[in-house]
Amino acid sequence: MAFILYNVSKNLREAIHILLQGVPKHINLEAAKLDIGAIKGVVGMHDIHVWSLEGETDIFTAHVVLDDETLKNQPEATKQVIRETLLKHHLEHSTIELESQRQCTGNVCEERRA
Q1: HSE of 60 in the Cβ direction (CA atoms, 13 Å)?
Q2: CATH of the domain at 36
Q3: Residues 31, 45: contact at Cβ < 8 Å?
């Protein structure tokens, strides 16, 4: 009986974590952010969200700020490098919005301009 209750509570905690869209335990978000920040042309990120859809597929969304040259000349190539980097961190599905430094939105960008 104790074994059953233990497994039920474990599965319930995992289900609640998924429903609350928590960052999956096997994802090291800080390492992923560092790797993306190291990509040529990336100058910042904000509004980053990582969650698991159903416990199997991990999802990443973010606004990625690029320098003007990269945004003008290589936006899609940079986005592809970001996606490949995310795959190394087990983030299979991603939505990436590219922004310029001048048109960046959010608190992080406001702080950078001040």
Answers
A1: 28
A2: 3.30.70.1350
A3: no
Structural domain count of the chain: 1
CA distances from 61 to 5, 7, 75, 82 (A): 36, 32, 17, 11
Instruction: Kindly give, in sequence order, each residue whose CB lies less than 8 Å from that of residue 37, ignoring residues fewer than 6 positions away.
Output: 44, 45
Segment 74-93, tens digit of pLDDT: 999 999 999 999 999 989 89
Dihedrals φ, ψ of 99, to 5°?
-135, 155
Is 6 inside a domain boundary?
Answer: no
Taking phi over 0 as left and psi of -120 to 50 as alpha, with beta for the rest, 105 belongs to beta
DSSP conformation class of 103: S
- 50 is in which domain, residue-wise? 23-113
Q: Rounded mean pLDDT of 59-70?
A: 92
Distance CA 36, CA 50 (A): 14
Signed CA dihedral, 34, 107, 90, 14: sign only: positive
